[in-house]
Amino acid sequence: MIRDRRHACMTWLVVLGAPDLDGGMTTEATPPGETARSFEELLESVALDRDHMAFALLFAHFAPRLKGYLRRLGADDGLADDLVQDVMAIAWHRAHRFDPCQASVSTWLFTIARNRRIDALRRERRPELDFNDPVLIPDEEAPPEQTVSNGQEGAHLRSAIANLPVEQASLLHKAYFEDKSHSVIAAELGLPLGTVKSRIRLAVERLRGALRELR
Amino acid sequence: MIPRHHPEMAQLLDYATGSAAEPVALLIASHLALCPACRRDVAALDSIGGCMLEDSDPVPLAEGSFERLMDRLRGEAPPEEPDGGTQDEPDSPFDPLPLPLRRYLPKGLRGLSWSSLAGGRIRIAELLPPVGSLRTQLVHVRAGSSILPHTHRGMEMSLILSGGYTDEYGQFLRGDVETADDTVTHRPVADTGADCLTLTLVAGDLRFVGPVGTLLSPFIKS
Ligand SMILES: [Zn+2]
Question: Is the ipTM of this complex over 0.85?
Answer without folding.
Answer: yes
